[in-house]
Write a structure and sequence with these properties.
153 residues, alpha+beta, 26% strand, elongated
Length: 153
């Protein structure tokens, strides 16, 4: 069960890091007490991925189109491996996300600070989604039909 929780936590923070703006990650990187040393396992590469959708959000899957994605992998000096997959072509974003992925797997003070950072990023993203949802909901138009000349009895 603990392994499952670790996997779910890692999936969550990797998703948050992928959606976080690169300039926010740059600020977090500059706030680290010591910049971690790492070596590349796979330098940032940009390519295409197939995006799939579901009719109505829950229906049959269909191929929606392609999106640009950048991925990379690295290893910290202590042997911890970090991966990142981000939408778009920003190689620095992928690099920083991979470094933070590796840092978050450790059990030290930097990892604890990084977890707090991810929680803050996640809250910012939820706030942006909520604002966007409220703006969208404010433009909703309800349509209804009226029957002319007939009784509803």
């Amino acid at each position: 069960m603990q392994v499952r929780n670790q996997i779910e936590n890692r999936q969550r923070w990797m998703a948050v890091l992928a959606r976080t703006r690169c300039d926010d990650l740059e600020r977090a990187w500059s706030d680290l007490p010591i910049a971690p040393q790492y070596e590349w396992l796979r330098r940032p590469e940009t390519g295409l991925v197939l995006v799939r959708g579901r009719a109505g959000g829950t229906g049959s899957a269909f191929n929606l189109g392609e999106a640009t994605m950048t991925r990379c992998a690295l290893r910290l000096a202590d042997g911890t491996t970090g991966f990142a997959f981000v939408l778009g072509r920003d190689q620095r974003h992928a690099e920083l996300a991979a470094v933070f992925d590796a840092l978050l797997q450790r059990a030290d003070e930097v990892a604890a600070e990084s977890r707090a950072l991810v929680a803050r990023f996640e809250a910012m993203q939820a706030s942006r989604r909520e604002l966007k949802s409220r703006k969208t909901a404010s433009t909703k138009v309800d349509f209804f039909a009226m029957a002319r000349g007939t009784s509803l009895e």
